[in-house]
Design a protein that fits this description.
Layout lengths: L1 E6 L3 H18 L3 E6 L2 H9 L6 E5 L7 H11 L4 E6 L5 H6 L4 E4 L3 H19 L3 E5 L4 E5 L3 E6 L6 E5 L2 E5 L3 H9 L5 E5 L2 E4 L3 E5 L2 E4 L4 E3 L5 H18 L1
Parallel strand pairs: 1-2, 1-3, 3-4, 4-5
Antiparallel strand pairs: 6-7, 8-9, 8-12, 9-10, 11-12, 13-14, 14-15
Length: 245
């Protein structure tokens, strides 16, 4: 199912986009739920309250708040958000591009181009799709693809959890066990190597003398109580992958 937010101060535009979403849903036999916002502040408030959307249609000219400011607010929480700008004013295109807007839809061409733009957005989502973990804080919401997490460990000084990913380290003010519990509801690829560290089995390259070797060159000394269970989990993990391939 795809969740779409439509933000425009013109109710006729809101209704038009809703109808186009319904038509697209019927013609393509997919599940879409759209939410209309005539007040952009309400949209940003819902986002701050952890309401998530897959695609945003945002009017560029609204009396309560400039559309570019709305987009900045969305991107502050969800940097990877797919935003399609609704506007009658082409001169905003450059500024919108700088905000990494996905598409720029002129209202008088909406019926003609809507399906193509929504289809492109859904295709992008499908490419990006995957098990994801979200770090929620008052300032930002960070999305981490589980496949990019190499391992997680507890920082002994600060007690926070450190995610070591393929693109760098990300820290979360949550204890390691709570992160583990959350991740287990999303992915079965993780296993504890020792009390203060669990790893993504996909990145394990071997075990040598009770030391776990990871593809990024990291070596982790296995906790004695975890050795047998880790070996069993690895065996099951790779057996499933071999048969799946």
């Amino acid at each position: 199912m795809y969740r779409i937010a439509i933000c425009d101060d013109n109710k006729m535009i809101l209704d038009s986009v809703h109808v186009l979403c319904e038509q697209y849903k019927e013609n393509n036999n997919i599940k879409i739920v759209d939410y209309s916002y005539i007040n952009p502040n309400r949209l940003l408030s819902d986002i701050e309250d952890n309401k998530c959307f897959d695609i945003y249609f945002v009017d560029i000219e609204m009396p309560q708040m400039n559309g570019l400011a709305v987009i900045k607010g969305i991107k502050r929480f969800y940097p990877e958000a797919l935003v399609i700008v609704l506007t009658s004013y082409a001169h905003y295109a450059i500024e919108a591009i700088e905000l990494d807007v996905f598409r720029y839809l002129v209202k008088d061409k909406m019926n003609e181009r809507f399906d193509d733009y929504l289809h492109a957005a859904i295709n992008r989502l499908n490419v990006q799709s995957g098990e994801s973990y979200y770090i929620n804080s008052p300032r930002k919401k960070v999305r981490i693809f589980c496949k990019d997490i190499i391992y997680c460990y507890k920082d002994k000084e600060t007690k926070v959890t450190v995610f070591v990913t393929s693109s760098g380290e990300i820290r979360e003010r949550k204890n390691l066990q709570d992160v583990w519990n959350d991740l287990k509801h999303i992915s079965n690829n993780f296993v504890f190597a020792e009390r203060g560290c669990f790893v993504n089995m996909f990145y394990v390259s071997g075990i040598s003398k009770n030391v776990l070797l990871l593809e990024n060159g990291t070596s982790i000394k296995l906790g004695i109580r975890y050795v047998e269970s880790l070996k069993k989990e690895l065996e099951n993990f790779w057996r499933k992958r071999i048969w799946a391939d």
